[in-house]
Structures are given as structure tokens and as C-alpha cells.
Design brief:
299 residues, alpha/beta, Rossmann fold, DNA polymerase, domain 1, 2 domains, six-stranded mixed sheet
Length: 299
């Protein structure tokens, strides 16, 4: 486990993941003053309270996906995430409320119609790293492995499991700087990224262990048939046939790092919470006394 503490630590939360988890796990028995379902809001708020109570984070941002069909990746590959159903209107509305709660607690809310939460988190981490920050990415998503530097860690909050760069290798068989290439080779069914047909996770990891990068694999493709991997000759043929597709897939799997979201050391410093706004939200959402007291204690 990576040791992390002090003022130079930023927590970057994959907000959409935890809203979706709450939507699927919380019973549909919570309603606001207008009778609208708010089960995801209740679950997300409990998660956020526990995260802030446990971490005592001074620098923190919550990133949300607002680009389910408008991401720059859709322009590169229209079928990107086309396998996913769009969230129903009642969940879209709850996402909006979750952003309100995050902001009322004094947290930075990252939301963009061109970039995904992954890109906003990656750019925030890269921006603050130049100011001496280390990052804790609060998510279970494997894609974030590519962001972990020597002193960063990822935190699967639901399982309370944390790992650093070596944990990425333990999980995927590749190092952080190889994760985008790995996913470009073997694909990612979750995001409808095809990869190279016939190349699975083990083969992708073996290729990167030998060559180091996707570019080197394609530059030295004549060596592939002589590797000690199953079906090496067929693998080389597939790589030749689908080289351009592999490079296109890497444009999808690589997290953007150049969005201007954390250009100063104080960019994501937690602000004073808004008591009046939180009180109004608690009334509107019909939060119980325990949730209300937890929220008030956090501002």
C-alpha cells in the first residue's frame, strides 16, 4: 500500500460510478417532496459522507460524466459505448441533484460535455502533480491504472481496497504506462472498444512484456511469430491486418491529461460548505435526521 498523508494529497472521486452503484443497490422507496424517486441521491450522499468522514480530505473533486454521447471519443469511433443504454430521465435528474450536494459540501465538481470523468480526473491529477501533490483516485475502474504515479494510489471504496502502481501489474499484468496500449490490444467490452480481434488479455500482456509498447509491437511485428505465446503466427497476422484499428483504439483508451481543471495549487481546495443550501436540499429530498446531522457536521 502507498503511504499517503498531508496537505499535498488530493482525492479525485469517480462520481458517476457511485451514483450508478447507488441507483442499482438502493431500493426505490425514497422520494422527494414532489414524489420523485431519489434512491440514487440517498445512496450517493451516504457514500460521500462516509468518504469525507474517513479521509478528512482538504483537496477533493468529484467528477461526473456528462458526455455519454458527446465525448470526443464518439467523434473518433461512433460506436464508442454504443452498447450502453442511456440513463432514464429519473436517473439523469438524480445525477443533477448529486452534483448539487457535492457543491454544497464545498467540493469541486468536474463536469464536461466533451470529456469524461476519467479525463477530468486525469487532467486534475496531472495539473496538481506539478505542484507536489499525490493523488488518491476513488474508483474501482481499471482504466485509472494508467494514471498512477509512484506515490499515487487507487481506492476501491466499496471494498476498502487500495493499491498503487504495483497493484496495477498484479491486476492486469502490465505497468501503468502500458494500460492504454493493453486495452487497445485486447479491447474493452464495457466501453465497446474492439481492440485487435483474437487478442485477449494474456496475449496483450505478453506482447507488452516483450516489446514494451504498442508502437514497438507494430514496428517489430516480424518478430511476433517467434515469441513463445500460443498462436504467435496467427497473432502476427491479426496485428498486421488490424494495426490501424489498434492505434485508433488507443486514442479511445488513453485518458486525456491536458484539460485546464487544476492549474493552481489551490484549485481543488475544499471550500466552506453552504449550510442554507444543504438545509434546503435536506428538506426537498426528505433526508432523515441521521443524514442531516452527518451533512451539517461536514460543513
Amino acid at each position: 500500500m502507498v503511504a499517503v498523508s498531508g496537505d499535498s494529497l488530493v482525492h479525485l472521486v469517480d462520481g458517476s460510478l457511485y451514483v450508478f452503484r447507488a441507483w442499482h443497490s438502493m431500493p426505490d422507496e425514497f422520494h422527494d417532496q414532489d414524489g420523485e424517486s431519489v434512491n440514487a441521491v440517498h445512496g450517493f450522499t451516504r457514500f460521500l459522507c462516509e468518504l469525507l468522514e474517513r479521509s478528512r480530505a482538504e483537496h477533493v473533486a468529484v467528477a461526473f460524466d456528462a458526455s455519454l454521447t458527446t465525448s470526443f471519443r464518439n467523434a473518433i469511433y461512433p460506436a464508442y459505448k454504443a452498447n450502453r443504454e442511456l440513463p432514464p430521465p429519473q436517473l439523469v435528474r438524480q445525477f443533477s441533484v448529486c452534483r448539487e450536494i457535492s457543491a454544497a459540501l464545498g467540493l469541486s465538481v468536474l463536469n464536461d460535455h466533451q470529456y469524461e470523468a476519467d479525463d477530468l480526473i486525469g487532467s486534475a491529477l496531472w495539473g496538481l502533480r506539478s505542484h507536489g501533490f499525490r493523488g488518491v483516485i476513488v474508483s474501482a475502474d481499471k482504466d485509472f491504472g494508467q494514471l498512477l504515479g509512484e506515490h499515487d494510489e487507487q481506492w476501491d471504496f466499496a471494498k476498502n481496497v487500495r493499491w498503487g502502481p504495483s497493484g496495477v501489474f498484479d491486476k492486469l499484468g502490465v505497468h501503468p504506462h502500458q494500460v492504454a496500449d493493453y486495452l487497445a490490444l485486447c479491447g474493452d467490452a464495457v466501453d465497446n472498444i474492439p481492440g485487435v480481434p483474437g487478442i485477449g488479455a494474456k496475449t496483450a500482456a505478453a506482447l507488452l512484456a516483450h516489446f514494451g509498447s504498442l508502437d514497438a509491437v507494430l514496428d517489430r511485428i516480424d518478430e511476433v511469430p517467434y515469441l513463445r505465446i500460443r498462436g504467435a503466427a496467427a497473432c502476427a497476422a491479426r496485428l498486421r491486418e488490424h494495426a490501424e484499428q489498434a492505434l485508433m483504439c488507443r486514442r479511445l483508451t488513453r485518458i486525456a491529461l491536458d484539460i485546464a481543471v487544476a492549474e493552481t495549487a489551490d484549485a481543488l481546495r475544499r471550500r466552506q460548505g453552504e449550510a442554507a443550501t444543504l438545509d434546503e436540499l435536506c428538506e426537498r429530498l426528505r433526508f432523515g435526521p441521521l443524514t442531516r446531522s452527518r451533512l451539517r457536521a461536514l460543513i
